[in-house]
User: Fold this.
Amino acid sequence: MTKNDPAQASGRRADILERATEAFVSHGYAGTSMADLARAIGIQKASLYHHFRSKESLFVACVTEGYDGAVRRLEAIRSDDAISDPARIRAAMEEIYRINLTTPVGRMAPLIAEIAATIPEVAQAFHSGFIARHYATVTGMIEDGIARGSFAHVDPLGMQHLIFGPVITLALSREMTASFPDRDALYPVDRIRETHIGLILRLLTGKGSADGS
Amino acid sequence: MTKNDPAQASGRRADILERATEAFVSHGYAGTSMADLARAIGIQKASLYHHFRSKESLFVACVTEGYDGAVRRLEAIRSDDAISDPARIRAAMEEIYRINLTTPVGRMAPLIAEIAATIPEVAQAFHSGFIARHYATVTGMIEDGIARGSFAHVDPLGMQHLIFGPVITLALSREMTASFPDRDALYPVDRIRETHIGLILRLLTGKGSADGS
DNA sequence: GTCTATATTTCGATAGAC
DNA sequence: GTCTATCGAAATATAGAC
Assistant:
C-alpha cells in the first residue's frame, strides 16, 4: 500500500463516484459528510478535494454520470426487433427491476427530491437525462405495440405509471426495511416482479377498452 | 405578539409537529436543522428544547404521531358496507391519493429510508404502524371482494403493489419536480389517478386468470 | 415557557509539506 | 496525488435570566 500508486490513481475518480453514490443513496445528501466519504473510500478528506472542488460538484457528478448505461440498455431493448412486442415489454420490465433494485442509480429519486429545492439544476438534469428518457422509451414501446396491433388501445401515460411506480416504490420499501430480519418475506422481489409483469401484459394484450376516461 | 401567550402555548406541541414534519419531508432529516425548524415555527431554537429533548426525539414524534388519522380513515372505508366492492376500492384509492399527495405523512417514506440505518426503531414503528396497516386494509378489501364473488381471483400482494406503487412514486416525482414550471403537465394528478383507478378496477372485475404465476 | 448567550462538536474547505 | 494540520461556519445542545 504505497502512498502514490499510479495504478490506484488512474481509476480513482470512478472509484470515488461509485462509493460516494452508494453512500449518498443510503444516508441522503446532507446525511453524508465528506469525512464519511473519505472513510468509505479509504483516503483522507483533503484528497477528495483534489478530485472534486466541492461536495456539491461531487454530488452532481454522481448524479449526472451514473445513468448513461442504464438509459442506453433500455433503449437497446426497444430497438431489438428480433422479439415480439410482449416479449420486449417483459425484457424492459426485467431491466427496470434490475436497475432500480440492484444499482444505486435506481434509488436516486429520493435523493433528488431531497435537494430539488436547494440545487434545482440537478433535479432538472436527472429528470431530463434519466427519468424522462426511461419513461419515453417505455411509452414508445407501448405505442409501437399499439400501432402494430399487438396491444389494446391503452393510455400510455397510465401504463407508464403502472409499470414504473411499483418498481420504484419497491426499491424504496426495501431500502426502508433494509435492517428488518423479515424484509425478503415482506417484499419478495421475484414474486412481485413476476406478478407485476403478468398483470401489465394482461392489460396490454387483453380485450376491451382500457383507458380510464 | 406577547412573550408568554397561554393560548399559543397550549397548541404549541401540535404546531411544532406539523411544521417540523413539513420541513423534514421537504429537506430530509439531516438537511433540516433545529435553527431551520425554530425559524419556521417562529420561536427560538432553545425553546424547541423545552418541548423535545433532542432533534431525534422530535423527529420520532413527527413520524409516530402523524399517521393515526390516515390509518383510521382507510379502515373506515373498508368497514363501510353501504357501498359495492368496486365503489369501495375506488373510495380507498381516492383516499390513498389524497393522503400521499396532500399530506406530509404520505411523503414520509423517503425520509424513513434516509434514517433507517441510523435509527432502525423509527423505520420499524413507521412500517408496522402505517405502511403495513395501509397495505393490510387494502389487501383485506380485495380478499373480501373475492370472497363475495365481486372480484376475480387476483393475487392480493400483486394488486397491493399495483395500487400503492404508482401513488407513492407520483408523490415522489412531484416532490422532485416541485420547482419545474411544467410539473403539472408532466405529472397531471387527476388524469393519472382516474386512469389508475380504471385500470385497477378492470383487473379486479375482469374475466380470466389474473395471477402472474 | 420563552428568551439571550454560549459551550462543544462536526461540517465543508484550504494551506502547505512530501 | 496524498498527506497532516487547521480555519471559519454551522450544527446540536445547555445555562441561566425573566
